[in-house]
Amino acid sequence: MKFLKKILLVGLLPGYLICQAQNVQNKEDVPLDLGYRVLPMGDYNGSAYTISGKQLRNLPVTNLSAVLAGLVPGYFARQVQGGGLVNEQNSFWIRGQRSNSPDVLVLVDGQERDFAVLSSHEVESITVLKDAAATALYGMRAGSGAILVTTRKGAKGKPQVELTAQIIAQQPLKELKSLNAADYARQHNIARHNDNMDPLYSNYDIMNYAKNDPNSILYPNVDWADKYLKDIRWSQRYNLNIQGGTEKSTYFVNAMYTRNNGYFNTDDSHDYSTNHSAERFNIRSNIDFAVTRTTQLDVNLYGWYQSQNGPGSGAENIYKNLVTLPQGIFPEWYNNQGYTDQYGNVINAEDGKIVAGNAFRENPWAMLNRSGYFQDKQLYGSFRTKLSQDLSFITEGLKASVALSMDSRTNSSIRRTITFAYYEKDATNENVLRRTREDDSMINKVDNTSSFRRTGIVAQLDYNRTFGKHGVSALAFYEQYESNDEMVLPTRFQSVNGWFGYNYDKRYGIDVIGAYQGSHKFGPGHKFGFFPTISAGWTVSNESFWKDAKKIVPYLKLKASYGQVGNSSGVDAFYYRGRMWPQNEVYITGVNMGTKLGGYIQDILPNPGLTWEKARILNIGIDTRLFSDRLSVTAEFFKDNRHDMYVVNNKISSLVGNVKEFKQNIGKINSHGVDLSAMWNSNIADWSYFIGGTFSYSTNELIANGEVDQPYEWLKNQGRPLGENRGYIAKGFFNSWEEIAASPIQTFSDVQPGDVRYEDINKDGQIDVNDMVPIGYGDIPRIIYGVNLGVGYKGFSITALFQGAAKVSHQYSDIVMNPFTDNGTIFEHQLDYWTPEHQNATFPRLTTLDNANLNNRQISTLNVKDADFLRLKTLEVAYDFPIKMIQKIHLKGLRLFLSGTNLITWTKYKWVDPEAPSLAAPLTRNMSIGCSIKF
User: Would you say the pTM of this structure is higher than 0.85?
Assistant: First the structure.
């Protein structure tokens, strides 16, 4: 509760600045781009939030989806995996987890595209759509919200060129530290003693391991992670853009190159690289032509090329081996000294090095340097052209437009991998190395080649006119969208959409929105659906009775929306038809039923009534500005009730047959929450400053999900939040055999003092699956918050974003919790284990028994912990040189900056990062220095 109180205090701090020069972001006259139409923000009655691309320009990130959390209220995100250019992975949601398929629709310039790969220098703005009024026009494609990215356009004037260069240093946030060889041997002997086995290492062995000689043949001590993982890896990014134009045309052209130099230390003994590295080229051209005084033609061209190189054994697999391999298990290699294998064959060593290894674990040095390499390449290109015609000659305020877009992407993977033999010292003959596997020549193949294409067309009519105090707007358009992968059938959407808006005297507004949309996924008679929404707003500050209050509250607006949207993202296409599938040994016949024959089974039952998930969303909000517009506050409450959620019906009897699974639209889930944002922006003499915050809370309740009836209430998922962790209540450890005898039977394995003791929830005298209860929260935070601070003085500026999450829990992996997992090492933090003399320990007794079904490895409150955190997410220190100074060298702008991301983290979640607890490539602390020149 204390931590939650801190969150509330911080999250509600007055003020949140979109960017220093954008202190009018929420004023009613600022245009709001909703994709299909642009309208003044003051006329909009839905829930949408826009940030400027300027705020993202120089952050040292390669995935833009990582930086919105804490900036945009209602945007929930997790940095799932680091690793540099193309392996960075981020999961994000709008207003939390409101569905079992909470995919967010992302549109770049109106076309469904990946915005994570964009250069931050080509982004004009990012708008997050949250309620039904904002997403209704997207029908069943944006039931969980949408993100609209608008790219930059040119401006009339002389050509302006901007060049930005950055050097980025990446450092892993948290890495586990393994014990040296001697300490490992001591702890392994203790674990074997606990398992009633003889020790594996003698005192003589331990004495020799304690010499810490990494080159020893029999007693090596190799700190694999320290030797082969770089402490700092370097990236570089260069961006060049030019813009300008005349009365007839404007243009914006942007090019970016970025490269990550890899995070392994390799031998570089080949004419090819085995390091994990990546590079990407981006290019964009946005040109707008004034064909006539009433005709506008916009042509957008965009593309990128991406190449990733890595070791043949796979970078993630090698990283895991480097972190978990015991330091004394074997040396990196054996020097070529005339060894023979167990069959008497002379061993031929490459570069004088013979690969060491054993039957239990692979050698990461060899995986890095002897397994060959791979190259993954992607080439992407797109265009969008839009022709707009002013039809005021028919009636004032009428416009028409047609937009055509196409995307194409090709992927190819080159695999030049090598299978290598590895050798282990023979126990009886010092001249013999026992071989496992055979050396093989390099495999040269191209696989995973694929191509992808998307096309879209939109034909649209707009009407916008004011009659005295009456403002009328209308919109109607037809849209068709298709995506086609060479391996699967095309994806198609088709829709007819409309929007009618009325505003009286800038005081009262109402909007009626509807979309009639269909999808290829559904059967005849069920392909199309109607998605209606209504929204209304009352600008109280424009009332005559508010005149005196305007001195304190110059702007106050109340707004609300209610509507139904759809979500088809999680629905399997064509499952309304069913499927026959070949399977071996499925039919039993013959004498004594001893013959098994292959044949076809109906693994997917037809579901002719298959449909999309439906969400009825209520949004109520207030926008206000106070104190001469220096303080702006937005508060919104939402309620989201969903039905027809596509889930597995576990109540279907197995007598139906051997089906893959039977999914139906029987799920229901209700969600609600709040979004808050505020900003204060002011100045004192030559000093400017801002302080701001965002706070978002979302929770849900699963009403129906197709689960079978449960004997106990606590076993039900219904009535609980979706995604909530489940496990056993750990009551500590058994401290004696008497405690074990007096306790309920733990059915997972035999127990002894030092093992985990679980609570018997149903009081039946045994611990089993009927004692599993909800524990902690889910993996998706229920609370996301951010605090943004900044100060400027005569060209100097410092800005910082603190971002945090609360009401979130993660399960520690087996490797983090249990020493010797998968024949692995023991880490320093795992030394706090139970012994008869140390009963108040963090971990149970040591054991070498590596079985996921063991008592101590059950999911429980021992390994599921709160993962709340507060992080200094971004920091930038910059200096803009005075124009008078740089004009002498013919420059229009010169900016030097230092920036960083993921700099400091405060959390009670130990040992691994609270956002990325797995042992994939870790998140990184990124620090950069850069320069931006305009001329």
Answer: yes
